[in-house]
Amino acid sequence: MPVVVEPEEHGDERGALLAYLRAQRGAVRRALHGLTEEQARSAPSASAISLSGVLKHLTFVEELWLRVFVDDPLPDEEKKRLREASFTPGPDETVEHLLERSERAAAELEKAALAQPSLDDTFVIPPAPWFEGGRYSWRWGLLHLIEEYARHAGHADIVRETIDGKVAFDLVFETGAMPEPDWSRGA
Predict the structure, then answer these.
(1) Are 59 and 98 in contact (CB under 8 A)?
(2) Confidence check: pLDDT of 1 > 70
(3) First vs last C-alpha separation in the chain
(4) Which residues pair with 123 in a beta bridge?
(5) Under a CB-based contact definition with an 8 Å cutoff, are residues 63 and 102 in contact?
(6) Whose CA is closest to 147, among 49, 22, 24?
(7) d(Cα 73, Cα 64) in Å, to the nearest integer?
(8) What is the CB neighbour count within 10 angstroms for residue 39?
């Protein structure tokens, strides 16, 4: 586990879910720490994804799901166009721009999640070729976002390590996300 997620207040399920979502967002953002724009856009592994592309994609996913959660879905054609471009940053989409957009999307989603009366409240997911759609809880939605971020955080770890050999723990300590432990104390 690259960062310690503090325990929630007893009974604060929403706080726990948002804390884990923040931890996964942080993992993806830290993977970009200290890289040049060229490095952030590079795809040095067997995959065609770059770290900038992972961040852009996850921000798109978070923005898209928030719209689904609050019943303001994108038209299918626009959603398809944005999804197809979601892993490819445009010329003006610098790391700084992508990080700012990601922070705005995260703040909007968290505000909506905190304003929701209950995680049992539901939203409708429209059908897709790979999915029947249906009614799902906010709890399910937040868990799905944690899953999506966690999967891509793993991709980001591999891409970053391929770029310069830095692993998640190196970046956690470098960015101050967690102080480096006293390894001499043992487990």
Answers:
(1) yes
(2) no
(3) 14
(4) 136
(5) no
(6) 24
(7) 7
(8) 18
DSSP 45-94: SSSS--HHHHHHHHHHHHHHHHHHHTT-PPPHHHHHHHHHTTTS--TT--
pTM over 0.90: yes
Q: What are the structure tokens assigned to 36, written together?
A: 């040049």
Q: Which residue has the tokens 């197809």?
A: 84
Residues in Cβ contact with 70 at an 8 Å cutoff, skipping those fewer than 6 apart: 112, 123
Amino acid letter, 97: H
**Lookup: tokens for 49:** 């994804």
Structure token digits, residue 127: 């059908």
CB atoms within 10 A of CB 176: 8
Q: Which residues, 6+ apart, have CB-to-CB distance to 149 below 8 Å?
A: 21, 24, 25, 27, 28, 58
Residue pLDDT, tens place only, 38-61 = 999 999 998 999 999 999 999 999
- Distant-in-sequence, close-in-space partners of 153: CB < 8 Å, separation ≥ 6: 24, 27, 28, 31
Rounded distance, CA 135 to CA 112, Å?
Answer: 18
